[in-house]
Amino acid sequence: MRRGHLRKPRHPFLDHPAPLALAHRGGAAEGLENTLSAFAGAVALGYRYLETDVHATADGQLVAFHDDTLDRMTDAHGPICALPWSEVRRARVGGTEPLPLMRELLRAFPGVRWNIDVKAEPALLPLLDLLAEQDAWDRVCVGSFDESRVARAQDLAGPRLATSLGTSGVLRLRLRSYGVLPVWALRRNAVCVQVPEHSGSGVRLVDRAFLRAAHARRMQVHVWTVNERDRMQELLDLGVDGIVTDHIETLRDVLTERGAWLPGPEHP
Q1: Which residues are catalytic?
Q2: Which of 26, 162, 167, 258 has its CB 3.0 to 4.6 Å from that of 13, i.e. a possible disulfide?
């Protein structure tokens, strides 16, 4: 059952009973992150929400990939933004899997919703153009660590685009939860906040006060990247609205045990 404070979602992207299960890079624990096979595996398990990242190639093709360069995850080298798609398409994740275009992913899984992290500024306009071309506004939430980037995306696309808060927006929400910041200081059009449980310096971000502050603004709280069963249980008991995980089978099992696993429409 959907929680009362979020009974009516602010955007169609969130029109699914909480808690949401989001497959981080398709389920990065298997090592073939952000590949068609990873996403297909998550969908086969019943995942309705997939998380990915996008970069633009030198000739403007939008690639689902996390890193700035090909070096760590593929058998190729170099920054994606400096290479044409004709070169990037030859790279293989784990030596076997090609990098998918975001256009291909939207078409391959028409019933899936995508949480997309815009990793670099050159990817922003191509992504908005793609969402318009595919009429995929209801299926996508755009995020970025850079609050100005995601705010710019919102300004350009308007209310048809779902966005999450960037890093500075999360900080403002944390301060609001302490009563330090007035409510008008928060960006009003974000529909969710996606955060780690703790900041990089070890300060706890996700607690009851933070949840209250987000829910008062009708924003869902999705926590990343949670891979341990006990942490999943504790966060769900706390009342978070979604969990992003590499270990997609573990999260599915936890939600199933709690009677909260609702597989997507593409699951047989």
Answers
A1: 24, 66
A2: 162
